[in-house]
Every structure is written in structure tokens, then in C-alpha cells.
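Let us walk through a complete example step by step. Step one is to write down the protein sequence. Step two is to encode the small molecule, flavin-adenine dinucleotide, as a SMILES string so that its atoms and bonds are unambiguous. Step three, shown after the inputs, is the structure prediction itself.
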Amino acid sequence: MKKVIIIGGGIAGLAAAYKVARAAEAGHEVEFTLVEKDERLGGKIATHYVDGFVIDGGPDCFLTEKPAIHRIAKLLGIFDDELPTDDARKRTYILSRGRLHDLPDGVMMFAPTKFWPFATTGLFSWPGKIRMGADLFIKAKPAGPDGPADETLESFVVRRMGRECLDRLAEPLVGGVHASDPSRMSLAATFPRLLEMEQNYGGMIKGFYAARKKVAEMRRKYPPKPGAKPRTFFTSFERGMQFLTDAMADAAGRERMTVGAAATSIAPAEEGWVVELDDGTRLHADAVIVATESWAAEKLIRPVDSGIADALAGIDHSSSATVSLAFEESQVGIDMNAFGVLCPLAEKRSLMAATYSSTKWPGRAPDGRVLLRGFVGGPHNQAIMAESDERLAEIVLGELREVLGVKGDPLFAKVFRWEKGMPQYTMGHLGRVETIEERSAAHEGLALAGGSYRGVGVPNCVESGERAVSKVLGEWGMELAEDSEEQKRYY
Ligand SMILES: Cc1cc2nc3c(=O)[nH]c(=O)nc-3n(C[C@H](O)[C@H](O)[C@H](O)COP(=O)(O)OP(=O)(O)OC[C@H]3O[C@@H](n4cnc5c(N)ncnc54)[C@H](O)[C@@H]3O)c2cc1C
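Step three: the predicted structure of the complex.
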């Protein structure tokens, strides 16, 4: 019987555990033990249920177009629990020069694809709009023999669409969502599609216009089946995102998982590996999957391979917090028919963004009550993380009053802190990840997984955990029939 120890019980570690369990079910002689330092499984995925409210403290959704979560949900039998957004109430505001503007219809990422909404929006100045339109005429940067050279999100957007587009749209929409600084973000690591789009279509407007047409064509060709849930851009679960990680833990086997147990070291043994826990326990295994944040992995890996550890040390993280505030609908004093507001850095506010959680996700608040969620921190405001929970709740409430006009007092506030919670895919990130992957390939029975490497999104983390299992199973000549040829190639 081969034994795999998984360190870290976030979505990546749980995806790894669930895959080992499926391999065992398929007849392979393999089992796992998972250790998680916190008292709860799920990592950044954390849902609290308070007085009928469903409150997600970390991710509240995933990108619908990425297949990994749907695949897992089908395996778990919880596909019907997926929750689309309530697009009848879809509206996104961007704060600009102190005023709220609608995100113009047809904007995809940061490129306009419909003329009138773009021409008539007050979000940009006329010189700004003309500069954005110049994207249609600016030639693509020539690609080298290995494809287009990497550059920062800032340099790419400013080069193609101008600085106003960066400051008013791309930074809050893209940099803000990643809680990352556009002047340091590697485009190849975060949005490689944009580099390809420039080469294939000659610019962002043409590229996104073609993408929009393709989506419309697919919708015409494959209309939703009668009674099927609408396919919206983002998807969640009716009981919040932790419903997914809980179902994964149940299916993989909670009896094989220990919470409140931190791994303090890993070391190669005569056969396999030894993992030491903070209570002094020594666990023996044939393989170890390190599914922690990269900064936690660095400490564990350094004695094993300083080259991997150095590459891990090069991955920065930023801290952030979400503050959910519950209100009586009659007291909140704003029109709740919107999904959220984005606050560009240029507005110099503490609030980065806010979500109208109970509008975007039906069922997040009991009847007659509403839920708003503010997002603070990020690379430009790490100082705010020193504030107490009470103060963070006051700050977010104050911001919601000033930005959205929220009245009334909240019924309660719930603060979630994510210290060093968001990896920063800065320039050189892909090189660091390649080093990590190449060097760990040389250690039989060692793999790393998680959001620090090839995608921060929840579906990417699932794939990362599964890839780590495929690496170690592959070393033992074990194959899983469920892996399609495409997945095998990918893994
Ligand atoms: C505020 C916020 C909002 C987000 N919103 C979205 C969103 O809407 N959609 C989306 O797709 N993504 C979103 N993300 C990103 C996504 O949530 C994360 O990338 C993903 O959940 C990370 O999963 P993971 O398993 O890699 O890591 P984690 O969830 O961080 O899990 C790692 C686990 O390892 C444990 N650990 C660390 N050291 C040890 C040790 N020595 N021994 C044992 N255990 C250890 C930790 O306690 C932790 O539980 C968001 C992230 C944040 C912070």
C-alpha cells in the first residue's frame, strides 16, 4: 500500500485527497493522510451561517467557463447545488472622480466591444476614449521565436489603451480582483490570453469583439436545455463555497484528515519521506504533497531542496480582508439592484471593491434583509491590516456610506482576514514556477500544489491538487481511467 501525506487542507489539498481516494476506489493500492494546521478544512474557502445569512469570507464564486469545479461537483453529486448569479439585477458601478458610473455595456475585461455605451459613458474623458480607440490602429508588438515577450499588466494596458484606461478600468477590474499591483503583475502568468489576442487579432478591441461574437454564436448553437440553470459568468453554491470543500472532505474521508496539526518539517527517509508535526508526531509516507501557501512551503522544502525554496521565496503575497455587513432592507437606504462597485486606486479610498452579496447570489440573506461585502487591503494598503476587526468594520461601513450612500446601522459585521493570502504573480513568476516543477520532478514522491503557482482561481487550485497526485501516481505506474487523454497531457 502506497501512502501519500498531503500537507494543507485548502481546496488544492482536498482536491488531491479526493483524487487519491478515487484512485483507491478504482483499485489502486494507495491511501492518504491529510494534515491541516487550522481547526477547519477549506483554507481560504470559508462560509459562515449567521441568522439565516450565508457569508463567504474568502472566494464567493468561480469562473463558470473553467470546467474543474463542474466536473468535481458532478462526481460529488452536488452539481444541482451550483448557483448562477441573478443577472436580471446585474449592474456594476465604478467610482470615478467621486461619482458612480455604470460599467459600460459590452466592456470585456478592459476593452469596449459596443460603440454607444462606450461613447456615452461619463467614466472616461474624451481624450481618454480616443486613446482607448487607438487600440484599433496600434500594431501588435512583434513576438520573438518563443512567442510574445512578457510584460506587466500596466505596460500592456498603457501601451494599447492608454493610462486612463489603466487607472479607471483595468486596475480596479483586473488588478483589484487579483489584489495585485498592475505595475508588477506578469501578464504571461495572469492573462496569457491577452498576449495571444494581441498577436492573433492585432489588438484588444478586435480580439474581444471576436470573443463576444463567438460566445453569442455558441449560445445560439447550444441554447440552454429547457429547465437548465442559466449559465452566468460566475457561479457559486447555494450554501456558499465551503459547501464544495465540505463535500470534497466528506467524499475523500474525513477520518483520514487531521485538523489543528501543522507540519513542521519534511525529510527524505531511507524509503520515502518523513513528515514531522508540531506535536512531535513523525509520519512515514511514500509521497508528500505540499499544498500550503508558497511561503509556508518554502520553510518545509528548504532542507530538501534549496533551489525550490529560493524559487518559492520569490513569490510575494499581499494581505487583505473582507467585511460583510448585514442590514434590514428597509434601513439600508440604497437601491440594491446591483452586483457591486469597484473603487480605482486613483480614488484614494480604503475600499477596493464591494459586492451586493444578497443581490448577486439569491439566498444569501433571509427575506427582508440584505448583505453587503467590502474588500480592503491589497498591495497598496497593507497598513490597514494592523487595524482591529471592529475598526475594519467601521472603516468599511464608513466607505459604504460615502461611496454608495448606505444609511442605517448594520445588524452585525463579520470580518475575515487573509494575511499573506493572495499570491502576487509578478514578472518572472512563470520562470520560478518552472524551476519549482522541474526540480520537484527530480524528487520521487514530492509534489507541490496550490494557488501560488499556475492560477489563483478555485478551479485552477483543484487542477493543481489533482496534477500533484498524477505526478506521484505516475511515478508508481498507477493511472486513473477517469483522466481523459487531454487531462493526462495536461497533467
Ligand atoms: C479574499 C479572497 C477572495 C478570493 N476570491 C476568489 C473568488 O471569488 N474566486 C476564485 O476563484 N478565487 C478567489 N480567491 C482565490 C482562491 O480563494 C485561492 O487561490 C484558493 O482558495 C487557494 O487554495 P489553496 O488550497 O491553494 O490554498 P489555501 O486555501 O491557502 O490552503 C492552504 C492550507 O494550508 C494550510 N497550511 C499552511 N501551512 C501548513 C502546515 N505547515 N501544516 C499544515 N497545514 C498548513 C493552511 O492553513 C491552509 O488551510 C480569493 C482569495 C482571497 C484571499
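Step four is interpretation. The pocket of flavin-adenine dinucleotide is lined by residues 7-13, 35-38, 43-45, 58-62, 262-263, 291-293, 296, 320, 322, 418, 421-422, 450-451, 456-458, 461 (CB under 6 Å).
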